[in-house]
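User: Fold this; tokens only.

Assistant: Input:
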Amino acid sequence: MKQIAILGSTGSIGVSTLDVIGTNASRFTVTALSAGRNIGLLKEQIIRFRPAVATVLDEGGAQRLREMLGPRSRTAILHGVEGYREAASMKDVDTVVSAMVGAAGLVPTMAAIEAGKTVALANKETMVMAGNLVVEKAAETGAVILPVDSEHSAVFQSLAGHDRKGVRRILLTASGGPFRGYGAKELARVTVSDALKHPNWEMGRKITIDSASMMNKGLEVIEARWLFDIDVDRIDVIIHPQSIVHSLVEYMDGSMVSQLGVPDMRVPISYALLYPERLPACDGCRLDLCAVADLEFYEVDFESFPNLRLAYRAARAGGTMPAVLNAANESAVDAFLAEEIGFMDMPAVIEETLDEHENDVPGSIGRILSADRWAREKAARIIARKRGERCSASI
């Protein structure tokens, strides 16, 4: 029976992971759970799965959770970065599901890698910010990294049994989000509610906005560069509106190998949890090809969706530039969700932040976190200026 720790158990990936575990209770034990501020849902998860440890963001949340659970609960309640690190590196844990959103997942995921765990990686920001350090540390400790993102899981499966020397390129598919076919002028008018209506996937707010702006795919390009040890210029993105072909690998002889499936995260999650064994398909997870009928593919519009161009720029620059890209994007997405800036202001904020950054070699996690802080402060100033410009224009 595998013992599982989940970083980010109350988010969409964490909830789906617990659904897989609950359906296959004889195969897994939940040893640790962690969340941010969704104390109510975490309490329900603790009652059902009875982990030894649960971690929340701060001491206030930890105290509220203890009161909600009552004195008979045997789950130890921790908090903060050290609590997340402890949950990720517990001795008895076999697999750590890294599903925290954003840069916050970097430190606890590195703790799991330092402890030599198998990491089911859904937190793409870990690889975006510190891919070189993650790869080096995993080689040192024997940690195994298994991708959970549907696109990277598809590439991982499409590479299985093949000589990596025969790979010509990787093709990551993108649904195109809710704004496929929009031009820049139309995108400038979209609202937060428009951007949160993804046509195929049910995801958290931040990743849904990233999907709409194509930044999610840009982050996946950088992640793929490190996961599969391939130059960024051999990673392409194509639009596939149906989200059935989750990604492809093209080989030197012209053959293409792909993985197909319904757009349901429980499929790649279950594959990562029990790799190389496969679990029986969950309800609704079987693909009916005849019902799908048509599969379409289109080129990316880099002019209308500049975030993807900016991600390639940061990937080619390397160093601390990808961490700055990620931090500026997180700041811009937060500002857009708060309706402080417009949809097309997001890439403008990111590009200006990149332009101002003096790139450096990320020799340590501390250096990366320093670049992350710098980028957030810089982006905040740019956002404040743009917010002022919007207010002036509305008068």
